Structure formats: structure tokens, C-alpha cells
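Chapter summary example: a protein plus adenosine monophosphate.
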Amino acid sequence: MKIMVVGGGGREHAIIKKLKENKSVTEIYALPGNGGIAADAICVDIGAKEIDKTVDFAVANGIDYAVVAPDDPLVLGAVDALEAKGIPCFGPRANAAIIEGSKVFSKNLMKKYGIPTAAYEVFDDMNSALVYLETAPIPTVIKADGLALGKGVIIAMTRDEAKEAVRSMMEDKVFGASGDHIVIEEFLTGPEVSVLSFTDGKTVVPMVSSMDHKRAGDNDTGLNTGGMGTVAPNPYYTKDIAERCMKEIFLPTINAMNAEGRTFKGCLYFGLMLTENGPKVIEYNCRFGDPETQVVLPLLSSDLLTVMQATTNGTLDACEVKFADAHACCVIMASKGYPTAYEKGYEIAIPEDIAPSVYVAGAAIKDGNLVTSGGRVLGVTAVADTLGNAIEASYARVKKIQFGNAYYRNDIGARAIKAGGN
Ligand code: AMP
Ligand code: GLY
């Protein structure tokens, strides 16, 4: 089978490594992939958002199955375009990917179908938003409607900060058209849990839960990033909470999307906050999380391609989806300065014995050598019998890898250990 994976980060590398375990897979193409992915797939110089070129490539090369991993092409309709040419895909169509593509859509969906989430108001003009903020409870959370590279959320601790956030989105357009409409919502507190799930629109199968570490610095300080590390499972996510989420959140979401004529197939990511009043949805993503995938897929003991095809074919209820009874930790090695300015172009040395557990996010090949090319450079994962051992093993691997300007957090998993993980 010839497989095509759209995307080029650490998440895509983890997906590709897992797909390769299936013996019927003969070739994997990555569009565009990256310098590290090139060791596991054939990289093709087509950007993830270049839908027409992607479809032409798939048709010309007889692709049997496509996996569209990032949010942008999903929201832009890559799956619709590929399916129109008869190519089966993993991922939602555009009319379902809107669950991530528009926060106004997802908030209204949750309100309409009684799915627990933060209370909110939607604003289409700046003045009404500013008037509302005169009396709104503080802290408050301001969200740009559309995709904003994970940066469209501002937690405002004061009224002035909140107003500033609204102005930056609606007047200065720092997120472009994504700020034409905004959501202002209630500030919630509690531990966060990421639950990725497979769904074919009828059955929803949650994967092992995970915990992201979004801030750049140790002890959750510094700027928000795309994610500096993950552990799985998440110790806050108990069996009782999982059952409650299935009943109150997961199934109602799948049913709501069906009722709206927007059946969701693929990976639906539930970003949850476990509040005093029960689990609530912070965000939906229409795709695998990054770097959650780098801890979740190494724990998947079933065949990934088989599960993905079951979501496409609507046969997920008959498909075995098993996870190892183990723990995983992924530490992101970044370029110092990320998420703002950083230098790149430094040579990366990854010892061969640990290469299978290294997922390359931002690296290119230059003069035959792998060099840093992005903010997040590598995800270094280890799986072990306990969380403590997984953390220790992933840091031991990190210490074996060298590149100029390398930076990583030293406390990935520490919060999970404190929460009672072992
Ligand atoms: P998002 O980009 O939607 O994942 O939001 C980024 C982060 O902002 C989340 O992971 C939360 O930590 C935080 N956040 C978003 N919404 C809320 C909220 N209503 N209350 C408190 N924190 C929030
Ligand atoms: N790690 C969070 C995300 O993928 O959106």
C-alpha cells in the first residue's frame, strides 16, 4: 500500500513511524515532511496547505490511503478534495473540521447540545466587546474565532489586559481575519487533560489520556508554546472521570455533529479542564495533538493503519484499539529563544540506538547533514513501566543528543508525579 501523510512536524513523524509497523505498507510519502522524517518516508516538496498540488500528487502516484494531520489543510477541505478523486482519507471533511476552525461554531454547538464548557459571549464588533468588559468577571479569556497557530487565546488577569487583547485582535488584526469575531469566556481553573479519540461518526474510542506542558519555562513559567513535552496517561484522568466524559462530552459531541449534518471522522481531540463542577471542554481539535501524539501512539499496541481505515469505513465498533499498560514521556528539545526569536542551522547528532524514539519536528538536511530549522526541533520519547521511569529514560536520551542552541524544560512530568502518578 502506498500511503501519503500530509504535514511535516513531530506529530507526523510519530504517525509515520507507527504506520510503518504495518507490513502491507510499501511506501510512505510525507508532504512536505522534514529533514528527519526523510529517514522514514519519501519527502515531497508540497506544503500542507497546497491542496490542489496534494491532490494532483496523490492521483499521479496512485496513493491508496491519505492521512491529513494538521488543522489548516483539514479546515481548508483537503479531505473533501482527495475523496472527490476517490482517495480514502483519515481526517474530517471541512464541514466537520470547523469544530476546531471556528471557536464561535464550537461554543455554539456546546451550548445548543448541553455539552459542559465555560460560559461565553460572542462579539462581532469591538465596541460591544469593550462595553461588555466594563462589567465582565475578571480574570477572563479572550479567543479569536479562527485558527491562529495556537496563539489566539489570551488569559487576561485585569480589565485593561482584556481590553488590550480585544483591541489587538479586532483593531490591529494580529491574527488576521481570525479576529473578526471573538469569544469572551469564563476563566476556569483545574487540571487540564488531553484526550485524543478515534471516531467514525458512530463509535468513539478514546485513546490513552495525556498531559501537555504549554509554557516555555520550568514550573509553567514564560510564554505559551505549541507544547514543550507530554506524559501519558494523565494521572488526573481517573476511570470515573473517563466514564463521565464519555457520557457528558464525547458521545454528545459525536451525536451533535451528526445532528448538524457534519459527521466527524478521524481523530477528535478533547482539550478538557477538570473543574470543581466537573469536566468541561476548553477546546476541540480536529486532529492529533502535537506533542500528545508522541506519547499516545508509542503506547498504541493495535495496528494504527487498521484503526485509521476503520474510522474511514465506519467499522470502528468492530476494530480492536488497545493501549499498553505502560507510561510514556516526551521531552521537546527546542531552539533557545522559542517561541519568539531563535537561531537555527545547527548540526544535530542523534545516536543510532535512540533514533527510533526521536520524532523530528524542525530540522532540514543541509550539505548532507541534519540541521535545526525550527523552534521545536525534536521530541524525545521513552516508554516504561512507571511514569517516573519513563521521565528518567526520556531525559537520559535527551542528554545523549547534541545540537547548538538546544533548550528543553527540566520538569516535564513533574506535575503528574505530584498529582499521584508513579
Ligand atoms: P487553547 O489554544 O484553546 O488550547 O487554549 C490555550 C490554553 O489556554 C489552554 O490550554 C488553557 O490552559 C487556557 N484556557 C483556554 N480557555 C480557558 C478558560 N476558559 N479558562 C482558563 N484557561 C483557559
Ligand atoms: N498540544 C496541543 C495541540 O496540539 O493543540
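Key point: The longest strand covers residues 266-275.
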